[in-house]
Design goal:
Layout: E1 34-38, E2 44-48, H1 72-121, H2 124-128
Antiparallel strand pairs: 1-2
Length: about 150
């Protein structure tokens, strides 16, 4: 029931790890100025001033005015993109309409040319409505010479 007590740990860690080792004699003139800085654990430790890190530079004050809900530059870019797209769509539509009109003009012109050629080739009597016909009679005399006759 009685358990033997564990031996106390023997660590060579000093209670003040950053305390300078005691010296026999220390004169005030030999010791430089000392500053107190925080270590990694948040404790204040003495340090010679020439080895201390430089003091932190105070940051500039920030502008804390609220920003607009939508960025004006982004709005301009978006407007330019939408406007450019609308412009491209309008130009494409206009070019398409012009091409369609030219195609229609071409086929319509071909119909009118065909009608003009047909009217030109139609006899005048047929156009005027006269009932008659033109008959071309061609008399051909063919004479052949035969050696046996």
């Amino acid at each position: 029931m009685n358990e033997p007590a564990l031996p106390a740990p023997t660590h060579d860690v000093p209670t003040e790890p950053y305390a300078p080792a005691p010296v026999a004699v220390e004169l005030a003139s030999e010791r430089g100025p000392v500053v107190w800085v925080t270590d990694a654990y948040g404790r204040m430790v003495p340090m010679p001033k020439n080895l201390a890190p430089p003091p932190m530079v105070r940051p500039e004050p920030r502008d804390l005015t609220p920003l607009p809900l939508l960025d004006p530059v982004a709005q301009r870019f978006m407007g330019a993109g939408i406007g450019g797209g609308a412009l491209a769509a309008g130009v494409g539509y206009g070019i398409g309409e012009a091409v369609n009109a030219l195609a229609g003009l071409g086929s319509g012109a071909l119909v009118w040319i065909a009608l003009a050629v047909l009217a030109w080739r139609t006899p005048v009597r047929a156009v005027a409505g006269a009932r008659g016909s033109t008959v071309n009679i061609r008399k051909a005399v063919i004479k052949r010479s035969h050696f046996y006759a």
